[in-house]
Amino acid sequence: MSPQTTDTVSIIHWPAKTLVNPVMGKPSRPISGQTQYQTMNVFEGLNGKVNSGTWQATAGKFASHVVGYIEFCYIVEGACRLVDPNGTVHHFTVGDHFIIPDGWTGHWEVDECVKKVYVIAKA
Asked: What residues does the (S)-ureidoglycine aminohydrolase cupin domain cover (predicted)?
């Protein structure tokens, strides 16, 4: 029997309140309000096909079109609504989690502030 070698795979950890290259911006398709957001991408893997981090936005309403990826979201602060083109409203608050599928079109509504943890998997 020959000895086997194993590669060590480590857990990736970033402490709470750690800012890792935060990106500030405004939605490219605003509908109303003066929404500003901050994205902190803290992990990228599988040659850029998977990434994860935190995203937060101030009050406003903005359009969204998801193309070429799916996104898992977990709300950690605040609340928001995602509205489908047919008018169906999805309400999310702290502790809720959801998946935005590839091809989804609609808009976000944020009354005060919302913060989510996300994982994006690209096609």
From this structure: 47-118
Whole-number pLDDT of residue 14? 67
CATH number for the domain spanning 31: value is 2.60.120.10
C-alpha to C-alpha distances, 68 to 65, 72, 74, 76, 100, nearest whole angstrom: 10, 14, 20, 25, 11
Residue segments in the chain with a per-residue pLDDT below the cut of 70: 1-6, 13-21
Q: Is residue 4 part of a domain?
A: no
Q: 115 with 54: CB under 8 angstroms?
A: yes
Q: What is the pLDDT of residue 44?
A: 87
Strand partners, 63: 107
Pairwise CA distance, residues 70 & 101, whole Å = 5
